[in-house]
Amino acid sequence: MSDRRLQLDVRVVGAGLLGTSIGLALSEKGVDVSLDDLSPTAVRLAVDYGAGRPATADDRPGLVIVAVPPDVTARTVAHELAAHPDALVTDVASVKAGILRELRVLGADVRRYLGTHPMAGRERGGPISARADLFLGRPWVIAGHDGISYSRAGAIEDLILDLGAVPVEMTVDEHDASVAMISHVPQLVSTIMAARLAAATDGAVGLAGQGVRDVTRIAGSDPGLWVQILAANADPVAAILKRVRDDVDSAIEALEHPDAPGSRRTIADLMGAGNAGVARIPGKHGSTRRYAQLVVMIDDTPGQLARLLTEIGELGVNMEDLRLEHSPGAQVGFAEVSVVPEAEAPLIAALTGRGWRIAGAS
């Protein structure tokens, strides 16, 4: 049994990706986790994977975690507050202000409710995709409100810390505005770009490289879930999209008249603003430090990537990030390795000396 902070029995409502992942992580800590879901099959799967046990009518949880779709979160939280009058209830939905408003309309006892949101997930859902380490090192927002005391809410922070996540305190409105910017609008932009590929020629799609893969990576997300999320956070998302639209309109105007005075500067300014924005995204350990990249060509045969990573370690270089790319039909792959700038030149020299081919290196 692992050391843990949380000293309460936990009830998880919703045996999907997040609920099952929470159950897996808490069960590994020795917490008694009971699982409930409208789908008996989902509960059985989650139990089989080790996320807890089926809930019973005799359970007296101290903490209830609601992990259901956003459009039924408030009603489910209200039901759990009524059914377990001694329990603290939280949810992990990706929007917060609307849920709190609905709970107040329903007359729920929000003195025992505190909404949270783990900034973690996967493109695929369901209990079979769950992982006990899903939350490690990830921000987990605690969306506070005036109706609950911090002493009562302490168990929420214990839960987050036990799951290896990093607690971040925000108001419900701050949370919704923040996730509109860093999650909801990027999802829409990725989806809109990917939709253009449906009408692209086979020849164009065959040229797909890492750029289009990066932009469209999250476009395979569940449409039904995202309709709920976007509808629940519509105003902040629409406000940001209007500013994106203004930028796109400026780019269109400049490209339609590329020789007009100021057109090239408009494009350059947009690109520069993008550089400034991406530089603000925290990297490893929350640092905004920029890294150097070198692209290593790897034969598409078993064991080559493992050999490269082993040799980088033997050279005493700490790899900050890694991205892989394959070209259709090619028998070679490309590993883009990120390192601190001062390590770039020595690493290129050392890998070249060991027979590795570095793209762009002479």
From TrEMBL:
Query: Which InterPro entries does the record cross-reference, listed alphabetically?
Result: 6-PGluconate_DH-like_C_sf, ACT-like_dom_sf, ACT_dom, NAD(P)-bd_dom_sf, PDH_C, PDH_N, Preph/Arog_dehydrog, Prephen_DH
| GO BP: any one term | tyrosine biosynthetic process
Provide the top EC class: oxidoreductase
Domain Prephenate/arogenate dehydrogenase, residue spans: 8-285
| Record EC number | 1.3.1.12
Instruction: List the molecular function annotations (GO) for this entry.
Output: NAD+ binding; prephenate dehydrogenase (NAD+) activity; prephenate dehydrogenase (NADP+) activity
Q: Where is the ACT domain?
A: 293-362
* Catalysed conversion reaction: prephenate + NAD(+) = 3-(4-hydroxyphenyl)pyruvate + CO2 + NADH
* Similarity annotation: Belongs to the prephenate/arogenate dehydrogenase family.
Protein name in the entry: Prephenate dehydrogenase
Q: Which organism is it from?
A: Microcella alkalica
